[in-house]
C-alpha cells in the first residue's frame, strides 16, 4: 500500500471504513463514537460500522430534540447530541484519593487506575474547540488535573467535518466551526461513496498507512470543500461577540436577569450538556467502620444552590444570581481567567433547556440590545 504524506488527502471507500476502525482497535484503543440510545445520538463504546447512526439525523430547536430518518445511509449526517467527549476525558465521578487508618495513623494514597486509551470517532469542529478550552483550564494552567492530562494525552481523535448543523448551532459566531482546523489525528469528510481523509498527526499517518486507501482526486476534494462551505451557510443563529464581555459586566443589574429567572428552572441541564463546564464538588466518604475515607469528585453546577455555600450562607441564593453567574462566566470572565470564551457555539444548552432559554437571545437582550431576527428561536 502507498504511504500517505502527513497532511495530504486520501480517499477511503465506504465499504472499507470498518478496516479503519479495526486498525485503530488493533493499536489498543477503545472505540467511542456516536450511536443511538434512548431516542438520541449519544457517545458510547462501539465496535463496528453497524453501531453508527446510519441514515439518521437530529432536528433541534430551543427546548427540542428529536431524531429523523434520512433518505440515505450516511453515517455522520447529524449535529450533536446531549453527550460531549468531556464525559470520557473528565469523568462525572472519580475517586481522587483514599485514606486508611493503620496503627492509629492515617495513610493517604492517590487512587491509581489504568488510563483508558480512547479513540474518539466523529468529533466535530466545535467539540475540538471545546477540548482546547478544557486544555487551558485542566492541562495548561498552574494546577493541572493529572486525571484529565493522562486521558487527554492517551486519546486518539478522528474528526468528521460537519455537514448538517442544527438550528441551534452558532459555531460560526464563535469562530470554532463548522470546518475542523486542527487538534485531530485524522479528519474525515463523508461523501456518498466514502471518506476524504486529512492526516493531522504522526499517529494518524501511521493508521492511514496501515490500510488500503486511494489517492484523492480533484473532484472529490472539491466535493469535500463544498460540504464545509455549505454547512457554514446553513447556520443562521448568531451571537454578537463584539464588546460582549464589557456589555455583560456593565449591566449586572439589567432587568433581563429577572425576566429570564422567571423561566429558568435552575435544573443545571445546560451545564451538564456543556462541553466546557468543569465545576465539581468534593466529598469525603468514610466506610461504616471509620477506618477508611475516600475523596470523591463529582460534576457539579453553579445552578445548584449549595454550590455557592460559604461561611454559613449562600452567595447566590436565587435563580437570577445563578443564571447571571453562569452566563457572565461563560461569555465574559472566562476571557479574564483563560484568555478564551467558555462557549464554542455547539447549541446544546439551547436544545436541552427544558423551557427553551436561548443563550444567544439572552446575551443580545442584556444592556437592552434588541435581539436580531436570527437569534429568535422558533420554539421559544
Write structural notes for this entry.
This protein has 380 residues and is an alpha+beta fold. The chain folds into 2 domains: 9-234, no CATH class; 244-375, no CATH class. The chain is built from 13 helices and 16 strands. The chain has an 8-stranded mixed beta sheet, with helices on both faces. Strands 7-6-14-13 form a 4-stranded antiparallel beta sheet, with no helix packed on it. Residues 369-380 have low confidence and may be disordered.
Number of strands: 16
Structural class: alpha+beta
**Secondary structure tally, helices:** 13
Overall body shape: globular
Radius of gyration: 22 Å
Percentage of residues in helical conformation: 25-40%
- Terminal Cα span: 54 Å
- Strand order, sheet with most strands: 3-2-8-9-10-11-1-12
Topology (elements, then pairings):
Blueprint: E1 9-13, H1 17-26, E2 30-37, E3 40-45, E4 56-61, E5 64-69, H2 86-89, E6 93-102, E7 105-110, E8 118-123, H3 125-138, H4 146-154, E9 156-160, H5 171-174, E10 186-191, E11 194-199, H6 202-209, E12 214-215, H7 218-234, H8 244-249, H9 256-261, H10 269-273, E13 280-286, E14 292-299, E15 309-310, E16 313-314, H11 319-338, H12 348-351, H13 359-365
Parallel strand pairs: 2-8, 8-9, 9-10
Antiparallel strand pairs: 1-11, 1-12, 2-3, 4-5, 6-7, 6-14, 10-11, 13-14, 15-16
Features:
single chain, 380 residues, alpha+beta, eight-stranded mixed beta sheet, four-stranded antiparallel beta sheet, 13 helices, globular, disordered C terminus
Describe this structure in a few short sentences:
Helices cover 30% and strands 24% of the residues. It is an alpha+beta fold and 380 residues long.
Amino acid at each position: 500500500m502507498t504511504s500517505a504524506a502527513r497532511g495530504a488527502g486520501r480517499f477511503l471507500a465506504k465499504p472499507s471504513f470498518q478496516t479503519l476502525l479495526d486498525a485503530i482497535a488493533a493499536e489498543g484503543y477503545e472505540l467511542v463514537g456516536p450511536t443511538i440510545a434512548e431516542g438520541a445520538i449519544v457517545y458510547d463504546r462501539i465496535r463496528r460500522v453497524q453501531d453508527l447512526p446510519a441514515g439518521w439525523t437530529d432536528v433541534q430547536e430551543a427546548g427540542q430534540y428529536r431524531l429523523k430518518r434520512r433518505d440515505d445511509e450516511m453515517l455522520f449526517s447529524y449535529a450533536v447530541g446531549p453527550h460531549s467527549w468531556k464525559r470520557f476525558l473528565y469523568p462525572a465521578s472519580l475517586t481522587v484519593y483514599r485514606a486508611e487508618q493503620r496503627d492509629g495513623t492515617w495513610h493517604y494514597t492517590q487512587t491509581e487506575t489504568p488510563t483508558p486509551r480512547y479513540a474518539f470517532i466523529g468529533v466535530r469542529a466545535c467539540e475540538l474547540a471545546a477540548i482546547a478550552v478544557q486544555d487551558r483550564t485542566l492541562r495548561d494552567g498552574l494546577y493541572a488535573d493529572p486525571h484529565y492530562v493522562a486521558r487527554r494525552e492517551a486519546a486518539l481523535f478522528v474528526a468528521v467535518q460537519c455537514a448538517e448543523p442544527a438550528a441551534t448551532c452558532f459555531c460560526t459566531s464563535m469562530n470554532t466551526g463548522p470546518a475542523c482546523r486542527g487538534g485531530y489525528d485524522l479528519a474525515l469528510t463523508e461523501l456518498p461513496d466514502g471518506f476524504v481523509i486529512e492526516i493531522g498527526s504522526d499517529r494518524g499517518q501511521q493508521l492511514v498507512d496501515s490500510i488500503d486507501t486511494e489517492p484523492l482526486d480533484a473532484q472529490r476534494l472539491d466535493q469535500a470543500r463544498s460540504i464545509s462551505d455549505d454547512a457554514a451557510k446553513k447556520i443562521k443563529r448568531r451571537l454578537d461577540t463584539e464588546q460582549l464581555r464589557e456589555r455583560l459586566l456593565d449591566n449586572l443589574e439589567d432587568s433581563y436577569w429577572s425576566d429570564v429567572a422567571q423561566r429558568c428552572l435552575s435544573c443545571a441541564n445546560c451545564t451538564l450538556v456543556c462541553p466546557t463546564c468543569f465545576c465539581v464538588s468534593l466529598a469525603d466518604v468514610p466506610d461504616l467502620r471509620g477506618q477508611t475515607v475516600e475523596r470523591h469528585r463529582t460534576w457539579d453546577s453553579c445552578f445548584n444552590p449549595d454550590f455557592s455555600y460559604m461561611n454559613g450562607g449562600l452567595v447566590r441564593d436565587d435563580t437570577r444570581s445563578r443564571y447571571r453567574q453562569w452566563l457572565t462566566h461563560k461569555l465574559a470572565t472566562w476571557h479574564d481567567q483563560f484568555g478564551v470564551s467558555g462557549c464554542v457555539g455547539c447549541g446544546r444548552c439551547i436544545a436541552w433547556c427544558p423551557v427553551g432559554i436561548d443563550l444567544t437571545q439572552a446575551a443580545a437582550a442584556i444592556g437592552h440590545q434588541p435581539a436580531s431576527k436570527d437569534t429568535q428561536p422558533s420554539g421559544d
